Amino acid sequence: MNSSDFYPALTDNNPIRITCLVTCLVTILLGFPFHLGVLWFERFGSDKKRTILNMLVSEVIWLMVGFVAVIQFPEIFRFTYGPLPESLCFLQLFARNSLVFTITLLLNAISIWRFVFIFCLKNPAAFRDNFWFLYSSLVIHLFSILYWGTCHFVAAYQPVVFYICTGQNSEEAIKHPFKGYGTIEVFSFVVNTFIYIKIYFHKQKISPEPHTYGFSMKVLSMSEMDKANLVNYFFVFSCLSFLSTTFMTVAKVNSIPAKDFNMYPNYLWSYYRSLVVPTLSSIFVIIWFYSKKNLRQKVWDQFLNEVYYHL
Question: Is 8-310 assigned to CATH 1.10.2020.10?
Answer without folding.
Answer: no
